[in-house]
Amino acid sequence: MSLSNLVLEIKRRYPDLDPQAYGQNRLALLIRQCTDIFTVEQANTSPSHTIVTLVSKQASVSKESASDQQVSNDDTKKQKQEQKIKGHLRKLLVVAWKQATQQEGWVQMGALGNQIKQLEPAFSPKTYGYKQLTTLLQAHADLFILHQRSPGQYNVRLITQQ
User: What is the spatial distance between Cα 90 and Cα 60, in angstroms, rounded to a whole number?
Assistant: First the structure.
């Protein structure tokens, strides 16, 4: 299958897939990065045409068995890094909520977003795999309650004082 056709098909099937959540700006770059799943080669007939094939299960199984120990170590490191990032994100959200202007214990979503940007100017929900701040906060239902005032307008309340 051509790389461009694969990208179009993935976008059609998974419109919310965000390559930035996996450290890439474009889906084609993410596909090229997944060497355990795909083989990406230039077509012989046209240098601008790229062919993508699935790596065979047998080849991937032998690669896995040969590198199980390395994968285990990498997974442990990755999990620790993810926990550290998640901890930083949760702390940032709570601090921003506490510093934002509150009305009877509620903060407007826009005010919370502005406060987050003041604390961390490079902040983007996409860095954490979410398209919007709303969906990021909904994923942290143990920390926040969201109340929809009107379509697209939310108030946010901290559940526990941390």
Answer: 36
